[in-house]
Specification:
Strands 1-7-6-3 form a 4-stranded mixed beta sheet, with no helix packed on it. The chain has a 3-stranded antiparallel beta sheet with strand order 2-5-4, with no helix packed on it. Strands 10-8-14 form a 3-stranded mixed beta sheet, with no helix packed on it. The N terminus is likely disordered. The chain has 153 residues and is mainly beta. The protein is built from no helices and 14 strands.
Length: 153
């Protein structure tokens, strides 16, 4: 018995895929030469989870970062095993919007919150936003994990 090697240029339709956090991306298996398909690492990974339906692999981000996905087609009686890697990069979702209404208040002896609403996909990370004495106060608002300001920063 002998093996016939058929030229297979690729197993996946791309070698890299960038997906924005909050959306999904798709890889397509272009050829399996009759062998059983396996995918590694196991889902979920550090940055995404994936599911397979037929030849489509759907990538759903879980965190910002980058990690390789390997698709392997097992050997058959007529073909050797083939593998392909795709680097999956998850980028921040640029939808963090700070709320711009800062409270200006007269001291009443009670605690006053200087910011009535933080915003969308962001949080206060430092400083003082509640005051119980006369003075000026400042605080920092930053995008939450996996998000960026709408301008991409």
């Amino acid at each position: 018995m002998f093996k016939i090697e058929f030229p297979i240029s690729t197993i996946l339709d791309k070698s890299s895929l960038t997906v924005q956090y909050g959306s999904t991306g798709t890889l397509n298996i272009t050829s399996n030469h009759g062998g059983t398909i396996s995918i590694s690492p196991a889902s979920p990974t550090s940055y995404y989870k994936y599911s397979r339906s037929g030849t489509a692999i759907t990538i759903t981000p879980t965190a910002v970062g980058s990690q390789k996905l390997t698709v392997t087609c097992a050997a058959t009686t007529s073909n050797n095993a083939k593998s392909a890697e795709c680097t999956i990069t998850i980028t921040p979702n640029p939808s963090a919007v700070p709320h711009t209404s800062i409270v200006s208040a007269q001291y009443t002896g009670s605690t006053i919150t200087g910011y009535s609403k933080v915003g969308t996909n962001c949080s206060i990370t430092g400083g003082t936003y509640q005051a119980s004495a006369v003075g000026s106060y400042s605080f920092t608002v930053k995008p939450n994990a996996n998000y960026a300001w709408t301008d991409g920063t």
